[in-house]
TrEMBL record, chain A:
The keyword Magnesium does not apply. The lineage of its organism: Bacteria, Bacillati, Actinomycetota, Actinomycetes, Kitasatosporales. Its main location: membrane. This is Cytochrome c biogenesis protein ResB. Keywords: Cytochrome c-type biogenesis, Membrane, Transmembrane, Transmembrane helix. Residues 548-577 have a biased composition (Low complexity). It is a multi-pass membrane protein.
From TrEMBL, chain B:
It comes from Streptomyces spirodelae. It is a multi-pass membrane protein. This is C-type cytochrome biogenesis protein CcsB. It holds the Pfam family Cytochrom_C_asm. It is found in: Membrane. The chain crosses the membrane at residues 18-36, 123-145, 157-175, 182-203, 215-243, 277-300, 315-334, 341-363. The keyword Transmembrane helix applies. Residues 92-112 are annotated as: Disordered. It comes from the Bacteria. Residues 131-365 form the Cytochrome c assembly protein domain. InterPro entries: Cyt_c_assembly, Cyt_c_biogenesis_CcsA, Cyt_c_biogenesis_CcsA/CcmC.
Amino acid sequence: MSTTEADADRATEAAGEREATAQLSTAPGEDKLNVPSLGPLGWARWFWRQLTSMRVALILLFLLSLGAIPGSVIPQTPVDALKVERFREEHTTLAPIYDKLQLFDVYTSVWFSAIYILLFISLIGCIVPRTWQFVGQLRSRPPRAPRRLERMPVYTTWRTEADPEQVLGAARSLLKRRRFRTHQDGDGGSRTDAVASEKGYLREVGNLLFHIALIVLLLAFASGQLFKSEGRKLIVQGDGFSNVLTQYDDFQSGSLFTADMLDPFAFRLKKFHATYEESGPNKGTPRDYRADVAYSEGASGKEKNATIRVNHPLEIGSSKVYLIANGYAPQVTVKDGKGNIAYRGPVPFLQQDNNQTSSGVVKVTDYVNAKGRKDQLGFQGFFVPDFQPGSGTMFSQSPSLKNPAMFLTAYHGNLGVDGGPAQNVYQLNTENMTKFKDKDGDPFAKKLTPGDTMTLPNGAGSLHFDGVKQWANFQVSHQVGNDWALGGALAAIGGLAGSLFIQRRRVWVRAYAADDGRTVVEMAGLGRSESARLPDELASLATEMQDAAPVATAAPAQTSDPADTADPAEAPEGAGQ
Amino acid sequence: MNLLAADPNEQLAQISNYLIYSAMAVYVLAFFAYIAEWTFGSRSKVGRTAAALTKQPTAEEAVPAPGSGVSVQVKKEGGGTAVLEKPAPPKIVTRSSAGRRGDLPDGPGAAAGDEQGDMYGRIAVSLTVLAFLLHFAGVLTRSLSVQRAPWGNMYEFSTAFSMVAVGAYLGFLLAKKSIRWIGLPLVTTVLLDLGLAVTVLYTDSDQLVPALHSYWLWIHVSLAIICGALLYLGFVGSALYLFRDAYESHLLAGRKPGKLRTSIMERLPSAASLDKFAYRINATVFPFWTFTIVAGAIWAGDAWGRYWGWDPKEVWSFITWVAYACYLHARATAGWKGRKAAYLALLAFACFLFNYYGVNIFFNGKHSYAGV
């Protein structure tokens, strides 16, 4: 063999091997950084190539996780607006900088959006060509067998008395039975005739499915953010709520939400149950909350009963009603200076500690004093469900309603509710109010238990503590795209499992007549990654092949001279057990 | 599942505590046995890697010539008769795409073929099994004492976490994987984890707050524990890979590493094997970790009115997910595979750890049931 012939030979061999390994994966190739020669089109193409390269995708992924970190450290407006306010007050120099960098809204900020939008463009730019490539592969035949099978990662050979045509036919039906895609070149008449086969296409299907599912997930999440609405309503036992904007205590919505998207329904809080740990180190820890409600759908639907618990929201139409908080509402009757009832009803107090020590205010706007002059009353104070006089503190000893008591301080003057900015119903603005004074000139305050009356000095009226009701706070969420998000997430997991657990591999079987009249059978396997399972699989295939092509008896092939290869030095020796 | 508060059975809870303490005591014994295995197993079989590497430059013989690889004998499935009729099972020749170092042999393990070392190793494994049984019983009685899933607070999470890690290790041993090399680092960290659990994180056995009354507790949290424990094994693999890889590069550069380093590194699996081990674990766990997050999102949808709300725990599980996605992509990308990818794997696990300890302790989110 002359050198040129050998070179040419080697070149064709290399080409054959390249073809055999080609496109076992459709992963993007890593182009070297090629600075384009000229022109805006060139630059655009260069930019697009960079963006869709795996390296840039990796960097973007990394940036995405880095960019998510500040959102967990710095308070976020959509998560906890109050905390953001507090942070602004405490950090007067830092807050404006954070504001500029949108660090209070990391996940909707321009820069975070830029990262994930680029990432998804990169993703699309990657999976579209991959899909075409894959479709092309599915439509074409499995790659031709390389000329020298013994160079493949997994290889076996033996000699048999069966003729090549038979062997190839058997190989083809065996591989088909094992659900390989097969293609036969020739029928054994020539040395290059072989069966080519490939299996594990689901790996790429899984891979594509995973990435497409991520896009679906992102779109579902985005539409959910745009169309969502979420409102809260505090309801005292016995009261009701109907789902219109004005009834909410506080309401948030996405930018494409419109009020007519609210589902028409109404519900009433019939009874609220709370169970607390009664003993042990975790005494007072809540164990179960339950809200019995009656609800009706539409404008005049029938009333139905339901129970809302934590983890078990009530679904009405496309809205869900969640139980998020609860507390006590002391019921009071306030009489004015003339002895007429100026206010009557439950007043929700807000929880201050884990034992339901709650604070609240009673605002009486429609009031006349002893002289018949118009005035306003305000009571500020605490409610404790379990007051223990011996404990030495005013704090509640447990969250259960065992020994309720209320401590109130009385004010009169201008509540400030008739004009000016909206104010918090749970706080008293005492700017324009004065405390009632007792005979000694001390602020007038009193501890009340249900049934007690607080008589204001100088005939200014009275407050009677009628009893205690419970209230519950509900969140009504209307969400869009949840099913798509869930579907996308599950498809992503399925795709991921396919792309990580399925091996794509190729198996070739060649059979040709040797000089001694017998047939040489060669089998080789190639996987995308070095898989421990591929040798096992080839062995199992070979074992089955030997039914159709039994090893020739007294054949020297098995151990010493396995194949009639061109170069004995490179022949497999079966060594290294 | 018993939703309504059952009073915790104090006696069972006490037994559980004793069992955990006993498990710790036995883990300490196992720890010493592993140390003994490493100490007494140091005599033989040193220098295999160097020998394998020095053969390298003479290209012809070094790279396993085609065919000089391993030959695998395969048992035929389905009935012994078929095997008997066969003249001989086919010989399969495998040929690895030899990297720059060819196919380095795996180290012989801590015992290094030394009989005494091996005996200590076996003792260590037996002790680990015993400790695991105690550990398991401890977690089980804790669960029985409150009749709920034993992972309602950080103490319970930590004990279950290390239990699963040890269980996975023993499972690998049972499946005849050569993984005894991970025994010493594993038992050391399990002791640390349990020590932290019983001292800092300890919470008395009790019922759960209403937000945790859900069957998702069984699915979401148990998966998080299993994923974490397995990812930890992968993490150890990646960390050791970095050491071993540095050692191999050192040898390849023709330098002579110190005696102690040689002694330890020679007994570890080759860098390629360690890398493969870490990759297989991480890749296998990744879909499950994804499902953990999805399950958490579904639960959040039921409990908090939104499936994703950027709560610190959610943010960090997302970061962890992206970090592992980075690792998986990096490993398939030229220029990133190898050491860089391994660093990413370490970083990803660090994110997981931070998500567990850091977020529970430093951040005040919706996942604060830690009881710390």
